[in-house]
């Protein structure tokens, strides 16, 4: 299981070394992980600007900021090595390459310069790192708590924070409306009023909050806030075994739970260096695509309810119910499936999986055609959706968009196509692109993605492989019962796995898959024990909702509702 | 006239048909063009069959709630399909999903805004007990904050299970049990945890600021913020209150 370490040859390496001589080093990483640059806090900003602007680097997308508290890692010497680590995950849409930019920070006053000026997307990620890990970002425009409330003390993801320690939140601790009173034009103060939108509001479909300053119906200033569903996924993961984390991942994006479990299992499999059998890959891919269809149907159906088109909601939910039937047959649960396992699946798919999957497709096609017929050329829908919530290509990249929202702005980045995993490399499908970047473009992209997902499903079930669904590596999967009862080795494997769980070798990885809303990344750190040392999710919704306040500024309140629905912000994933 | 005339026909219960609101010991008046009953019983019968739910949907359970109200499971069969998102227009609060500390004051406010009579269904284990999130930011059951009439198990509950919860609530309303509880004010907020020094005081029934505030909570060993953290906070200026 020991992976060989290599030092990747970076195309921009020579220029970088010349420019920042000795202050940036390329770290040795296993092949399964992404390339890593290590720098220090003083050089960070210079390095970031280089990585963004140099044509040989061109890292235009800021994906994630994964912070680590290394104080309990084996071999860590307090005071000598830095206690904290800030890992910036970057992506270049031009060169299709990921990069991790790492800064080690001391225990005493961990501070780095803020990168909000380089990548605006860093804004909320830095606030989150400050909130949960206590890393300070100098020069940040608004370094406040984001996920926890203002009555909170301490930084919850530090290793010395007790996971059960709660703090009382009173009404005064919630975001107060005077924050929204910061209008751009103080002379206008008499004309504007404050409008509180959420967290209990029908069109937020969850627990999102936006405080707006409105002039009549026009929004002059807005501030969005999240954290109303921060249920401590990352801290809870640290006290569960690697397999026990899977049920938690289901509840991240609960509209498409299969995708999350797959993304997590894939990340751990990469760390272990194991591969799953073709049948598991095929089943995962099919169920991923069904989940994607379900997610898009909820997004479109629920958003059209907000716009007053209730009928489509019934059209969208009927195929969902039928897909639920298939998921229930596979794993026993409708919504929270916990189906993926490290090294395969919880159990084999039902015997009639292929026929069942095939029988679902006509229903989906019909219902989608119904919605299409009612909406796509509907004048009211055009008036509400076209030209509202516009995000240009440059803005989408700067704000860290991925997934359908990025593709609606004209950037063809789709992990399934650009970095194929599972069976996506073997199937033929198109990545739909729109260029307008408005709500209608996001609607069209989602509708087309549903059709493309059906294409993927059709191709895979036409040659659905036979064989086992689990790897035969008994360090991660329970051996069959006959082996446990008859062979000494089988008993040992069984015993070790039940008592200690999967032992993932010490190391670190950033693994990414295409979630329904965009790139779903898992930054995992293992210390070699049976428990994850650190789990950081890159939630696709997070940058979308962070940018929301900028998108709606200057628009109408009613358009803000349409925009929020079509960004498809899922609170469980946003807040974790 | 204390006893009813013996000539009135006897009401034959038909399974599945909604019973007319006859009180115990009341004569059946089926077939006649009048009805004798007690006002309480008639009102409870009406209330239980026209619940107006307000979904306080926060997480995964809200998606299952959507399934319950949409065509396949059709909550209209139980007279509870008029979903209202304003607490002032609703009499049944369905808390669907995890409630975290940051959301707790909001839930309390929504509950307070509903007018009596009002009922609460706690949908799913997160709302009932905190579920498998025994963590630093999750309310360990909404009965810390609001009184709950029916708990529905499941993570998330299946639509059938939620429908059963609503039917149980209908039974409870019709039996008059809940009205008696409200009158005697038997709801006592629970304190979380066993150690009174470490645990978070539950939100009181009335005034939120009444409970010991966070400043009175002791700073506990490693969990309290270190000096360094406080310094960093000061350096960040307004970044932290």
What does this structure look like?
The complex is a heterodimer of chains A (576) and B (241). In chain A, 39% of the residues lie in helices and 16% in strands. Chain A has 576 residues and is of the alpha+beta class. In chain A, strands 2-4-7-6-5 form a five-stranded mixed beta sheet. A three-stranded antiparallel beta sheet of chain A has the order 10-11-12. A three-stranded antiparallel beta sheet of chain A has the order 15-16-17. In chain A, helix 7 runs antiparallel to helix 14. The mean pLDDT of chain A is 86. Chain B has 241 residues and is an alpha/beta fold. Helices cover 29% and strands 7% of the residues of chain B. A four-stranded parallel beta sheet of chain B has the order 1-2-3-4. In chain B, strand 3, helix 4 and strand 4 form a beta-alpha-beta unit. In chain B, helix 1 runs antiparallel to helix 5 and helix 2 packs across helix 5. Chain B is globular, with a radius of gyration of 23 Å. The C terminus of chain B is likely disordered. Chains A and B meet through helix 8 of A and helix 2, helix 3 and helix 7 of B.
Helix content of chain A: 25-40%
User: In whole angstroms, how far apart are the ends of chain A?
Assistant: 31 Å
Number of helices of chain A: 19
Strand order of the largest sheet of chain B: 1-2-3-4
What portion of residues of chain B is helical?
25-40%
Number of strands of chain A: 17
Unreliable stretches of chain B (pLDDT < 50, length at least 5) are 186-241
Structural class of chain B: alpha/beta
Q: Briefly note the structural class of the backbone of chain A.
A: alpha+beta
How many individual helices of chain B?
7
Q: What is the C-alpha radius of gyration of chain B, as a whole number of Å?
A: 23 Å
* Approximate shape of chain A: globular
> How are the strands of the largest sheet of chain A arranged?
2-4-7-6-5
Ranges of chain A with pLDDT <50 over ≥5 residues? none
Overall mean pLDDT score of chain A?
86
- The shape of chain B, in one word, is globular
Report the strand count of chain B. 4
